[in-house]
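Reminder to self: tokens first, then the designed residues, so the page reads top to bottom the way the pipeline ran.
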């Protein structure tokens, strides 16, 4: 009986977790206008992986990705005109909406607010 209750509790928690996996299109206001970024997320338990693509920074692979309910966090390392740029992302998924904040690792820069929608 105890095992059944534990399984039901785990199933309920899994059902409450946001559906992060899939393709998301996001935009943010930057110093030179609107920026666009596509995220392709894969989830394995609480591990988040995948890649992201933007016209400004190209394609980057997610590292150190985590999912906790509807919260997510990850890091990317991008190439900005030959200079390695490490960006930390954290945010939340609510239904088919994505809200992320990105900032340069180590601080010293402004954060960027991303808003996106799930497309797949």
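Designed residues (120 positions):
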């Amino acid at each position: 009986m105890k095992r059944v209750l534990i399984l039901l509790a785990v199933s309920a928690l899994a059902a409450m977790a946001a559906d992060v996996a899939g393709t998301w299109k996001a935009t943010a206001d930057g110093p030179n206008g609107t920026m666009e970024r596509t995220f392709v997320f894969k989830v394995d338990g609480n591990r988040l992986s995948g890649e992201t693509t933007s016209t400004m920074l190209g394609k980057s692979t997610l590292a150190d990705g985590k999912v906790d309910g509807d919260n997510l966090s990850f890091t990317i390392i991008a190439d900005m005109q030959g200079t390695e740029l490490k960006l930390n992302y954290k945010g939340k998924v609510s239904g088919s909406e994505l809200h992320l904040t990105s900032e340069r690792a180590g601080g010293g820069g402004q954060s960027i607010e991303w808003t996106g929608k799930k497309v797949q």
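Strands lie at 22-30, 33-44, 47-54, 58-68, 71-80, 83-94, 97-104, 112-118.
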